Input
Amino acid sequence: FGIHLVLWLAVLGGVLQAQSRVALESTVVVNDDGWAMVMERFESETALENFARYIELNSPGPVANRRLFIDVVEVTDEADHALDFSKRIRDGVLQVEVPQAGRVVKLTYAVRNAIEFLDDHDELFWSAGHIGSGGLQSASLQVLLPAAAAGQYWGQGFLRREDPTIPKVRQWSSRGFVPV
Output
């Protein structure tokens, strides 16, 4: 019994084009009850005006897609001041839009059904999704699992780039131990 992590850094609409210079740092904290808290920090060399974050709500499962239930907790700047934002769901995608921001946008949201509990393992699917009008220069991800998952996880990640000098898909996998 264990947790299977599927991590997907998608390249929709040129997400990883180098000229945008937006860096993404993500932390996903998974709870025993299947909830997860996601904290994302986007940083750019210039102001992030008309910033938009698109989060896929349909998560692939072993039999069929399932819909994720996401609550936006807060959107803040570098100094943790609240930013004005709007959100809407369109075509199965949660759109979080921040009309005026500085160089940093921090987005925190809860995923009420992040873990899919299956007979022989539990599964977390997390997608970096994409941001509007540009892409990511770099991305990092830290997943914090419950202590009960120590030594019982398998991770797989996918990275797609539209840069013609790099193969379109890079894949990595890991079998390892979760430090307790």
Residues 8-19, 169-180 have pLDDT under 50 and may be disordered. The chain is about 0% helix and 55% strand. The first strand starts at residue 3 and ends at 9. The CA atoms of residues 6 and 125 lie 5 Å apart.
